[in-house]
Amino acid sequence: MPATEELEVDLLLEGVFQRYGFDFRAYDRPGLKRRLLALMEERDLATVSLLQDRVLHDGAAAAALLRALSVQPAHLFDDPEQVRQTREVLGACLRASALPKVWLAECAHAEEAWSLAILLAEQQMDHRTEIFATVANEELLAEAREASIPMERMEQYQENYLKSGGTANLADYFEVRGKRAVLLPALRSRITWAQYNLVTDASFNEFQLILCRRALADFGPVLRQRTLRLFHDSLALFGVLGIDRELAPGDTLASSYRPVLAHQPWYKRVA
């Protein structure tokens, strides 16, 4: 019954919060339920209550749930149009800052951070820009720090890179380790990885650029507004915010921003 299933979902999310400290209670409910049902089908579980029992008593099941509800992984230059916009914003808005800081909030795996590091290198800003890449749980954090790319993917990544406006050989930004590739140490050193929860944690630094292009779509209305307030508190005056969709008049502090690119969700904080 729908009402019973809604109650089961509420109890599951409350249990995850109480047991593990991860709060998904204010996430967009239809999207969250789709991911839960996919996980249940994968594990051959008939009800949400059975999933709850596994999650609360089995660390592996809990890890699978956290992964299912986390932002889905991004790949190197996998959205060429978005990368083109980022190139334009970096050149126009960060160059004037002496030591710019960039926050990749709820970073969608190491390859998203690596893409940004390469863009900064091409703008000759990598040596003075620090990227703070945050993820919600320890398992994703460990994966990001130890990430590498299978060599067979590099050809497709090179195509994506060229479509995004790149003009170099993407492989020049990587070192080869057997059959895998890793971003050059000099570029990796500009990325600081940390565990951070957008739902519960407070502002931790001031940034000239904040990017959150994937996670906000998973948030319900109240949590989205809370996160926009958090970003405002973390963004320097005249800093730039890149999010998933254009701000609406009713969004938190929307009047404090001016568009950077026409009809695109890039904004400069002006108040």
TrEMBL record:
PROSITE patterns named in the record: CHER (PS50123)
Domain CheR-type methyltransferase: residue ranges: 1-241
Pfam families (alphabetical): CheR, CheR_N
GO MF, any single term: S-adenosylmethionine-dependent methyltransferase activity
Alphabetical list of PANTHER family matching this protein: CHEMOTAXIS PROTEIN, CHEMOTAXIS PROTEIN METHYLTRANSFERASE
Full protein name: Chemotaxis protein
Source species of the chain: Massilia violaceinigra
